Amino acid sequence: MNICKISGALGKDPEIVRFEESGVHEATLTVATHRFKNRERITDWHTVVVKNDHLVLTTISPFARRGTIVLVEGELIYEHFVNSSGSKVRLPKIILRDESKFKILPGPDRAALTTVAQAPVVP
Questions:
Q1: All residues at 6 or more sequence positions from 19 whose CB lies less than 8 Å from its CB, including other chains
Q2: pLDDT digits (tens, 9 = 90+) for 8-21
Q3: 42: Cα separation from own chain's centroid
Q4: Residues with Cβ < 8 Å from 14, sequence gap 6 or more?
Q5: Which of 62, 68, 69, 116 has the greatest CB tally within 10 Å of its CB?
Q6: 4-112: which CATH topology?
């Protein structure tokens, strides 16, 4: 089974695209996680591609912004290509399809949301 689960802060606002032929929306998230090595904090960046139109339109587009803390679970894939200098590159991505595998967690940016429209929050 191929499952990858991470939680971290969005490093920038989501990039949302709409495919003209199908009308389906897709979002790309850049998520930062942290780890420590020899008492030094290291930031790792992860690319998450959300392939769920409803999730993109109802949760990610209105509520996810730079700094939002998220929990995502998806399939880990690797894209392979040759860069401009001729080196082979292996780029990991997390593909999220299931709406129940994405949560916005409480964080400092949550105060900006109004009581009228609250994003789903894990208790």
A1: 25, 26
A2: 999 999 999 999 88
A3: 19
A4: 27, 28, 29, 50, 60, 61, 64
A5: 68
A6: OB fold (Dihydrolipoamide Acetyltransferase, E2P) (2.40.50)
Please report, for residues 10, 58, 62, 109, the alpha-carbon distance to residue 13 in angstroms, rounded to integers and kept in the order given.
7, 15, 11, 13
Q: What is the pTM of this model?
A: 0.82
For residue 121, give the DSSP letter.
B
On the question of pLDDT at 123 being above 60, the answer is no
Alpha-carbon dihedral sign for residues 110, 114, 118, 123:
positive
